[in-house]
Amino acid sequence: MNAISPLRSMPVFVAGHRGMVGAAIVRRLHALGYQQVITAGRDELDLCSQTAVQQFFRDRKIGAVVLAAAKVGGIHANNTYPADFLFENLMIEANVINAAHQTGVQHLLFLGSSCIYPRMAEQPMREEALLTGVLEPTNEPYAIAKIAGIKLCESYNRQHGRNYRSVMPTNLYGPGDNFHPENSHVIPALMRRFHEAVQQNATEVVIWGSGRPMREFLHVDDMASASVHVLELDDADYKAHTQPMLSHINVGTGVDCSIRELAESLARVTGFSGALGFDSSKPDGTPRKLMDVSRLEKLGWQASIGLEDGLRSTYRWFVSEALKKSVTLRK
User: Fold this and answer.
1) 324 is an annotated ligand-binding site residue
2) NAD-dependent epimerase/dehydratase domain spans which residues (predicted)?
3) Torsion (CA) 43, 47, 51, 53 in degrees, nearest 10
């Protein structure tokens, strides 16, 4: 386990605190006793504005940064808005990482994505697979932006001796997720679809694709735990496991399931008893995405929330928040 980190007494800026991952990281920091957690919503700080970001950093004595802000979405969103995904993510990471360096911030954690790896990467995907093959076309712009963020952190470490680290999570889900019917990831999209099917007494739920692709899923609270763990790692431990480029670390469970198996779990969680249909005219995306998490395990962290338990707690949150906030579900 990590010793009590000196970062806990420093001002820590969490960029993207209103998103699912950022909110979970803020919860984790507070739970660990971090005394000064700095946040700023879009109404306060435009992360795509270099001038605004630089001014924000100059006005605060930030000791560390967690860069969880990003434009995110599923296959449909990535296919529909590729320019937005590439441009906005490049701007966010470039502005925040450079402003951190310019104002003397030594510690930064950048959150990437498992989509950085080649479409046909050997499974499970090791960190060394980066840039060894062709990316999945359906989310290539987002992946390229995240790869650029990794390399930016690496470059500041090499050129300026910074301690900028990167973690690459597998597919995340949990409280605070985006449940939009078209622009969300697979778990919230299907969870909402199953919920509505139960409400409407539907006899079938149709899932995009063949149901055969294999995916790994990590609860966002586990992701937050892993992120802070890596942020707080002793320099010697971190460098010993990320040579030669002081590069990124995979974060996941090391276990995957098929989309069909995921749908079956969601049916149980939501109480749906009808049939499952699969629309093979829709894209499947990458055939399999499983992370090799041995590097992180050697550094003392493992996931603790099982998939079905995580789905049940997420569904309880979804129903509770939908009712409390009067979210309008499709009729």
Assistant:
1) no
2) 12-239
3) 90
DSSP, collapsed to helix, strand or coil, labels residue 277 as: strand
30 annotated as belonging to a binding site for a ligand:
no
> What CATH number corresponds to the domain at position 50?
3.40.50.720
Number of domains in the chain: 1
Question: Pick the residue with more confidence: 321 or 319?
Answer: 319
pLDDT digits (tens, 9 = 90+) for 233-255: 988 888 877 766 567 999 999 99
**pLDDT tens digits for range 13-43:** 999 999 999 999 999 999 999 999 999 999 9
In a domain, residue 14? The reply is yes
Query: How far apart (Å, rounded) are the C-alpha atoms in residues 152 and 99?
Result: 12
Residue 207 lies in a domain: no
315 is catalytic: no
Structure tokens at 119: 């479409």
Residue 113 annotated in ligand binding = yes
- Domain span at residue 97 reads 6-173+217-255+289-306
Whether 331 is in a domain gets the answer no
- Give the CA distances from residue 204 to residues 164, 185, 207, 262, 322, in Å, rounded to whole numbers and listed in that order: 48, 20, 10, 16, 23
Catalytic site residue from 34, 142, 156, 238: 142
